Amino acid sequence: MRITDPIQTTGNLLSRRQFLKRTIAVSGIFAVPYIIPASALGKGGAVAPSERILMASIGAGGRGSSDLSWMIGEQDIQFIAVCEARKDRRDRAKNIVDEKYGNKDCVAYRDFREMYSERKDIDAVLIATGDRWHALLATLAMKAGKDVYCEKPGSMTIAEGQMLVATAKRYGRIFQTGTQRLSQANFVFAAEMARTGRLGKLHTLRAHTAGGSSYTSKTWLPAEPEPPKDEMDWDMWLGPCPWRPYNSRYTHGGWHGCYDFHTGCIGEWGSHTITQCLMAIPDHYNNVLEFEFPNNDSGSGLVISYPGDLKMILDATGWRGSCGNKVEGSEGWISVADGYERPEVSDLSLLKDFDKIVQDYMIANDRPMNHVRDFFNCVRNRRPTVSNPGMMHRSMSMVHAANICMWLKRNVKWDPVKQEFIGDPEANRLCSRAMREPWRA
Amino acid sequence: MKKYIFAISAVLLARMILSSSCLGAEAVTNKMEDFIGVLKSDVGLEQKVAACRELGLVGNKEAVPVLAGLLSDEKLAHMARYGLEQIPDPAVDEAFRTALDKLKGQLLVGVINSIGDRRDVVAIEPLSKLLKDSDQQVARAAAAALGRIGTVEAGKALDEAIDQAKSVELQFLCEELLACAGTLVSQRKESKALGFYEKMSKADVAGRIKAAATRGVILCSGRINLLVEQLNSDDQLMFAMGLRVAQELKGRKVTSALIFQVGRLPAEKVIQLVQVLGKRKDKAAVKELITLTKNGDKNVRKAAITALAEIGDSSAAPVLMELLRDTDSEIVQIASISLASLPDPAVNADVVKMLDCPESVIRVRMLDLVGQRRIKKALPVIMNAMDDKDETVRIAAIRNVGVMAGMEELPVLLDKIIKSTNTVEISTLEKAVSSICSTGSDQDVCVQKLTETLSKANPSSKPALLRALRVVGGPAALKVVRGAIADSNKNVHSAAIRVLGEWKTTDVVPVLLELAKGSSEQVDKILGLRGYLGMASRREIPQKERLAICKEAVSMIQRDEEKKMLLGALGSIANAGSLNLVMPYLDEPGVRIEAAATVMAIAEKRGRKQNISMAKNALQKVVKITDNPSIAKRAEELLQQIEKEK
Q1: Residue A21: which of B236, B303, B306 has the nearest Cβ?
Q2: If you measure CA to CA, which chain B residue comes closest to A26?
Q3: Reported confidence tier of residue B516, pLDDT bands at 50, 70, 90
Q4: Which residues in chain B have their CB less than 8 angstroms from residue A408's CB?
């Protein structure tokens, strides 16, 4: 249901498409983010409406609002619609957009299907719902011809990740996971130092996990009267997950820690930190991995062994900030986390080329140190983002495998090429979950 | 089967669930029987939902009839599918197929979705019939299931339906046929998929579907002319798709065709095509890319240099080296990065040869390349370059000696520290020495050599050596640095105190306390105190010891700067003891904001394990003094939480 009156597209769609066509061609690897031709810039550097990437957001909780506020600062995009199952948040998101543009043009929707049906001009979507919706919404958006910036985690199951990867490949859509530290200097520096051999032979990668338990709850909260659909569309909020009675705690963050809605303490930060570790070892993506059960609840200390001497260890402690990772080689180590002014290092001399290493990475890979900018650049020049579907699925498969190792309370072996647990039908049962009708993979 | 007390409690069920993993075969069977029993009982919905879920993990053929019986139950149908889908027994597929004739609407859609997820080829025929179902949702679900099954037969069923379809339904069917054809391609059945793709590429459907289908046609047929057509297309979707296929399609002929297009396409398209040539890693493109690096559009040049690095062929090395002389600094930087990443060891010889180059700028870049490429053979040459008459060369040489040298080279570097009077040189030498000492196998030898050098060094070099001792660490190094406090030179004395303040290990704690308490100079006292407080924030030190440091420090702290350090440390300790120490600072105007933040950090972390009345007092005070509404709100929430927990 559309909440406010729809507006007509003010820009000339054809003209805008032609512009996109032109900028896609013009924007070479080194041209972005400077792909906006000077002629398109109005006073104050604003990009003409007809030449912006038109965006919609789905999900407007804390993270969604934060992403929206971040993205809306980019000059060459414009949000034209927001979608959210909760009215208060829907209104808040619309206000953020309207306030930015000084009008009331942003249209708020409760149902994304209606939004797609009415607004064919949407080029890309920001997905920042609860975890349960991420993969399905991203897949449906890409099928509908939209590029996608999707908050982490990219999937709730291995099968969801496969679905997302296949869809992005089939339609050639651009997808970026919200693992924003892949576009932050400290984290890039750690990965580059490890990747380029400056730490000697790598032997250990440590990925920070949130505190708590891997054994997410499967029980229900007491039923509360379901609010009117316009205030809170509970069925839409649940999406593909098993039905359960409404309780307002779920919709106010209480979904964290629930098996149906959350990937637990390993997925909460591991979806970031495992990806950060993977950046350092691009040659090891196809290795069979053994996950060793640590005999505790949190998964801290869970060792993921690569062939040879390399291992990744999930660790709930060891950093002063959140979402840290550490790379350790024969010639030193680097540790990074949120809030670090500079990485912690085994020796200060490792930091001597910090600026150069980050800058070289940015130039050689044409990556800005701004995650949403990377996404918009890639939308324009049609090349993979830094946290593309393959990267998302690679890291989330490891999150899921670690969770399955915890749930089964024993070691498991994951083959990323065959996409299965080796000789382990029990673990393979946990690779997918049936979606609640009418939703499907 | 066991008899059940049907009034099974949620707690009991939760226990059953928790113990349903990691079981032996017999125990699994028992669990399955337990969960089947739950489903047959009259317990509540939540317990039945849980039982369905767990049967997905422990169920076998015996669980199938019970779960299948729930497929028509509106409240449990989804969870029945949830359990069934995970059971790897053909009886599940049979049950789903049987349900096709019995269900309607959403329940039927669900079952069809499950058949698709399980890729049941036996269901192709009934699904094909459902493509014509009057319920559009059912027909679409059937098409999606056929797409998921992904066999030639499933594709044919969709293909036939496409002949009859129009508008939205045509598009929908094509999307599913794309999925089906994609599966065929992944199974190396390109010839089977080709016909499907060809049909869709000509259908009256949205551009994105046509583009995806055309990609399939090119990949399955290898029709390079069609690829070239897309690269020349004015349609953005088709051009973007052409670029993707250009990267995916293997073969020298494709590379040749792309190279040919480089000369025909406009510059803006060439940039992207050049990037694709890099990603293809076909050495046949090297010659053309080398040509592109030399002149013309700058962005094309930069793309070509990067593409050469991606291909990694050593024949590009001489050209890249020549580009280091380019007048454009961006070109030089990219060429340098590319040279560093060429994997062929043969490139090293070219780099070493260039170390003799008369131009200092080039020598500096080559020295950095030696370091980046870890060319061990060049170590003697760059050791000599540390004596170069050009300062920039000397500094670059020292920098890269630090990257590659080991204990054998340490004496030479130490000797240079003693002799040098150039501050930049000393600083670079310090980093090189620190690098060697931090990775050196024998730390005692490092300390010994550093100590010997210190005794001979002049005051301008001593601080660098003291800092290197900090990198090594250990009691012997600590003793030497502590001794340097007595140095008559003020700079050396001050450097020693600063080094102690940044010491890595806890053995420095008493030394810092002594400095903080007993130093005659106020500056030394403050530095000692700050170092001492820094230890209280170190997570590797047990909380009890850190709290003791904080307690000891309280009486010595006078300035707000150190009070803030103390509060930062207390926030990381988070127990009743730390909260007690924070309380007085809530009344101090200069630090009360920080004190409030510390109270909040402690309260958030250890809400249930601290002194309740103290926590309550602290939070109430925070509410009173804070100007930040979100902190006040959170403090009130925590207070409410405390009240509830009472």
Answers
A1: B236
A2: B268
A3: very high
A4: 21-22
Asked if the Cβ–Cβ distance from A242 to B243 is below 8 Å, we say no
Q: CB A332 to CB B77 under 8 A?
A: no
Q: Summarize pLDDT for B31-69 with one digit per residue, the tens.
A: 999 999 999 999 999 999 999 999 999 999 999 999 999
What does the pLDDT read at residue A72? 96
Identify the CATH number of the domain in which residue A282 sits. Answer: 3.30.360.10
Q: Domain with A62 in it: what CATH number? A: 3.40.50.720
Of A26, A172, A320, the CB nearest to B539: A320
The answer to whether position A3 is within a domain reads: no
Judge if A167 and A314 occupy the same domain.
Answer: no
Cβ of residue A321 closer than 8 Å to a chain B Cβ: no
Same domain, A141 and A204: no
Inform me whether the pLDDT recorded for B246 exceeds 70: yes
Q: What is the mean pLDDT of residues B398-410?
A: 90
Q: What is the pLDDT of residues A171-186, one digit of tens each?
A: 999 999 999 999 999 9
Distance from CA of A172 to the nearest CA of B (A): 7
Is residue A174 domain-shared with residue A290, that is, in the same domain? no
Does A6 map to a domain?
no
Give the residue from A160, A181, A202 where a domain finishes: A181
Is A12 a residue whose pLDDT tops 60?
A: no
Residues A135 and A278 in one domain: no
**Does A51 lie in the same domain as A90?**
yes
Structure token pair of residue A159 = 């099968």
How many A×B Cβ pairs under 8 Å?
180
pLDDT at A287: 96
ipTM associated with this complex = 0.90
Selecting from A28, A347, A437 the residue whose C-beta is nearest the C-beta of B435 gives A347
Domain extent, residue A384, equals 182-214+263-429
> What value does the mean pLDDT take over residues A190-215?
93
DSSP string, A150-179: EPSPS-SSHHHHHHHHHHHHHHT--EEES-
Number of domains in chain A: 2
- Using 50, 70 and 90 to split pLDDT, how confident is the model at B646? low
User: B246-281: string of b/e by CB count within 10 Å (b at 16+)?
Assistant: bbbbeeeebbebbbebbeebeebbbbbbbbbbbbbe
A432 and B CB contact within 8 Å: yes
Say yes or no for a CB contact (<8 Å) between B109 and A30: no
Give dist(CA B2, CA B23) in Å, integer: 19
Cβ distance of B208 and A425 shorter than 8 Å: no
Let me know if residue A2 belongs to a domain: no
Same domain assignment for residues A189 and A46: no
User: What's the CA gap between B6 and B48, in Å, rounded?
Assistant: 12
| A32 pLDDT tier (thresholds 50, 70, 90) | very low
Task: Write out chain B residues lying below 8 Å of A143, CB-based.
Answer: 175
Q: Both A175 and A189 in a single domain?
A: no
Mean pLDDT calculated for residue range B426-433 = 92
pLDDT of residue A167 exceeding 50, the answer is yes
CA distance to partner chain B, nearest, from residue A363 (Å): 7
Q: For residue B434, give the nearest of A348, A381, A426 by CB distance.
A: A348
**What are the angstrom distances between the C-alpha of B330 and each of A27, A367, B299, B335?**
17, 15, 10, 8
Of B128-132, B379-383, B481-485, B619-623, least confident by mean pLDDT is B619-623
Does A231 reside within a domain? no
Yes or no: say if A293 and A160 are a contact pair by the CB < 8 Å rule. Answer: no
In SS3 terms, B114-170 reads as HHHHHCCHHHHHHHHHHCCCCCHHHHHHHHHHHHHHCCHHHHHHHHHHHHHCCHHHH
The span from the CA of A338 to the CA of A321, in Å, is 5
Same domain for A206 and A339, yes or no, is: yes
Q: Which residue of B has its CA nearest to A18?
A: B236
| pLDDT of res. B262 | 94
* pTM for the model: 0.79
Give the residue from A181, A203, A237 where a domain finishes.
A181
Nearest Cβ partner of A409 from B22, B269, B471? Answer: B22
One-character DSSP codes across A31-49? TTTTTS-GGGB-GGGPBPG
